[in-house]
Design a protein that fits this description.
heterodimer; A: alpha/beta; Rossmann fold; six-stranded mixed beta sheet; four-stranded antiparallel beta sheet; 12 strands; 55% helix; B: mainly alpha; ABC transporter involved in vitamin B12 uptake, BtuC
Amino acid sequence: MDTQATQLRPRRADGLGAASPFNAALPFLALLVVGIAFPLFGGGYWGVIATRACVYWVLVSGLNLVVGFAGQIAIGWVALLTLGAYTTSVLVAGNVTPALPPYLALAIAAVVGAVFGLIVGLPALRLRTFYFAITTLGFATIVTQVALAWQSVTGGGVGVAGPVFPEPFSSQWGFYYFCFGLAAICTWMTMNIAASRFGRALTAIRDAEVAAEASGISKSTLLGTVFLFSGAVAAVSGGLFASLQSYITPDAFTLDLSILFFIAILIGGRGSILGPLLGTILLTVLPEFAAPLVAWSTFLYAVLLLVIVLAIPGGIAEILDFKNRRPLESDRAIVPQPDLLGPLLGAAPNAGALTLEQVALSFGGVQAIDGLDLEIRPGQVHGLIGPNGSGKTTTLNVISGYYAPKRGTIRLNGAAMPALHRRAYMRIARTFQTPRIVGSASVLENVMIGGTIDGKGTFVESLLSLPRHRRDEAMLRDTAVLALAAVGLEQLAAVRADRLQHSELRFTEIARALMLRPAFLLLDEPAAGLSAEEIGRLGALILAIARAGTGVLVVEHHPDLIFDICHHVTVLNLGKILAAGTPAEIRAHREVVNAYLGA
Amino acid sequence: MVESIVSTGLAIGCIYALIAITYNVMFSASRVFSFTAGTLGMLGGVLGSLFIARMGLPVAVGFLLALAGGAVIGIVTEIVAVRPVLKSLDQHLYVLSTLALALMIQQFTAIEWSTEPQPFPRLFDIARGGFDQQFWLPMLACAAVIVGLELLYRRTLIGHAFLAIAEDNFAARALGLPERGLRMASFALAGVIGALAGFAGGEMLLAFFANAPMLTFYGFVPVALGGMGNNRGAVVAGLLLGLFQQAANFLVGGIFASVAVFTVFIIVLLARPEGLAGASLPRRV
């Protein structure tokens, strides 16, 4: 497939995939140089501030994946800082065990932090946003109270001495470089994740959860992994924090600190690494410039948060995003290249038919679908039409595994499909009635989300940018460029998806679905909102997809499109089949004409 | 001891229930949970102490002014933190905007009032008995609010309008109900209820800025367990929470009582995310 892909190079795709990597890395390199050279200009006190910024960033970098990328409102992350600080300090002080060396204590703290990160985070899988925010808040309060009460270990209100790291990190600048090094490593690791299929999957969970599910992304596994990572770095940050403070009491871990971490990310902008990094530096340094305002710092953070939320939800990252402020060509056309589908979809998948037998589902008292029989064959286009509320989308949702049918079975090649399994692994892809797109990601990244399950590397490999991660990324990028070219959007690859027109979003969704090399493709009103010309091209594209061997199920309201491209049409009314047959038969069916098509 | 657990537990439980009702009244009008619910409770105590103890106003005047202060903060919440983000409810920006406003109020109080708990005046000049006013005042307030809300919702036209908005916002607007005005009125009402909670519980909780996050958390527990928007569930869950917390307090000590409440809260929520009385989840696609 790769060789074919290079032969059929899509038009104008080169140089448009993304901004050059050097430009993107430039601000980070600048910060790296400033950070390394910092002791040359900074005085003693500024050294403490700089160290503090590094310590905070170690935590914020991990939290950024939770808040900025996955969109989980974890307010009380200071709990993990507290945990890490106490674990490290107590182990080094030898209050419970024989005194341990600081590095070992820090490593143990990381493990403890990872476990608690998972515990604090897990409710996010079941609970709604506000509920989760409240539970993290509760956790933050509890940890401080336990630290206060557990006197024999934590020293209670009196506190405990922080760890001192041995030479060469014991001096002020030595410790600064230690923290700076860890901060740099965290930056690098989270950048790797951001640019990986895991980072894209996180943003998909945040902005387009059903689309993430349709692409086979497991929310629980992915969020669990991110909580482990985020908890570990937060605890390491706690260990460093304790050492920087040199003595810790529960008072040091106020909710204000938690708010600082959280707001740094939102000021920076969700889904960015640079933005939150600058946000962290800004919030750490800001109070130093306004000494009389120190008491008001949390108040000011809160004002900043309100302003950001109401005025610039994109944060610093959006302000710095010059690339996406260039105007787009106004009269751009979507010109699919169906000849690219061959190399994209590969050999015709040999899947047999997808059949629904007597499937029924009701919502409360409403019978959404009632005893539905349907057969979708590979290589054919099957149309599903009917008035609003006749159960068309519900049928797609049942096939997609979003709802378990009350009765009946769905078979793939004769074998019954489990009720609620992720369909992506069975190569069943779909699009949505309202496009489900990650608006802040580029079009290319959106399409790459569709291929998430084809990556081979693990989260850790991506974290460290190991060869398998880089191979995955290259493979996904090439396939996505090809898919975009096939649907006719390659010139928009690098554009933020929320700048696209509605019709372009529809084709983007098709490209994303094609990333799965689907045996079956479910399209939910793909022509809605398209111009007549675009509908014609869409029809040709759908036919070409079917010719490549994919079975296509189209839910549509445009009778012309349906009758032009479908091999078989099923008409639904009130959840039941009103008629089924070839387009010619349906067009002549008297009841259908009366009930739906009109004369 | 049992007597003390019960009276303290029920009194605290009534305060939690009132904060839960504050959450619910705001939620019904806007589909938004606001972090300012606990802040309103805190303000009830602080304003009461400010007007009566510090400024020496008569109890009745101080009481009315404290409630008025709550109403103002409720309206401010609606204008500043809720209305601008209602258009994009699915992005959950309201979590952040109301959090920001709650923090601003809390920090302002900490700096301008005091960072230490301040005493709250005794409202009625009667000797401390076994069943003191600090216990029965929150219970009385809670009962008054329940009866008042019930009368409002069942007997008055504006109450019916509130219910219509809560039931189906779009349909209510299509009927020509002044949705924005009703929402502001709801937030004002929520402000009054929140302030009443803090005022009635002032002697127990004192006038202390840090009551805000505490009440925000413990006031939300009954909302989550009782089912959102369900006031009766909230009252039952609030009373149970108060009793459970006080019992744990006496049996295992204050710190572990908080841990116990938190653990129970998480476990129940994980087992039944929609609450003990709750409804099912909405359609997804």
